[in-house]
Amino acid sequence: MKKLKIVQQIVNEGVVAVLRGKSAEDVVAMAEQAIAGDIKVIEVTMTVPFALQAIETLAKKYSASAAPDSDRYAIIGVGTALDPETARAAILAGAEFVVGPSLNPATVALCNRYRVPIMPGVMTVKEIQEALELGVDICKLFPGNLYSPSTISAIKGPLPQANLMPTGGVNLANLGDWIRAGAVAVGIGSDLTNEAVKTGDYELIRRRSAEYIDAYRKAKGLS
């Protein structure tokens, strides 16, 4: 039941912050600002030095057990998980979902074994079908900047059961188009953090996060 609950929460929240940085401390600071801006799903990529340390720190602070029934609650996951070994290490560090840049059947099997949501990257209808057959609940359409929102409605013609989350190239200008086209969620990376990293003002991430959440809610007709 926990896996289904987390999948539903990711869909309900609709926006995933994909965080990369120079250190675990950088990413923790970014995540804190994103959460303060109301993005409640945080993906820490394994390209970050000591990424597992960042995941553990955030999970201890923001997980349901750490902050039950609190506005501080957030879902902390791992990204750029290339293999099952990486996924398992991240799960043990506190990751509640796993994201990969590609479809790795062994990683999917590992996550299914431990009932942890897995969102592998896909580029073709064939990969999406394979992911569905492996039991994947949400497929990451990646890199999203190679596609347009109309791609989702085209894919859903033959595969209406596929849940797609574009990542890469999603920004404030096109987020609404992706959601209205049928994306169950979107992944936001550099557009969320680039300005803050350049200026050293991480509060910009909080303000940017609030803008993304507002855009998502408007696209869903929630505000």
TrEMBL record:
Q: Which domain of life is it from?
A: Bacteria
Q: Does the keyword Lyase apply?
A: yes
What are its E.C. numbers? 4.1.2.14, 4.1.3.16
Lyase listed as a keyword: yes
Arranged from A to Z, the UniProt key words for this protein are: Carbohydrate metabolism, Lyase
Database matches in Pfam families: Aldolase (PF01081)
Q: What GO annotations for molecular function exist for this entry? A: (R,S)-4-hydroxy-2-oxoglutarate aldolase activity; 2-dehydro-3-deoxy-phosphogluconate aldolase activity
InterPro entries, per database record: Aldlse_KDPG_KHG, Aldolase_TIM
What metabolic or biological pathway is this protein involved in? Carbohydrate acid metabolism
How does this chain assemble?
Homotrimer.
Tell me which family the UniProt entry assigns to this protein: Belongs to the KHG/KDPG aldolase family.
Record-given protein name: Bifunctional 4-hydroxy-2-oxoglutarate aldolase/2-dehydro-3-deoxy-phosphogluconate aldolase
Source organism of the structure: Cohnella faecalis
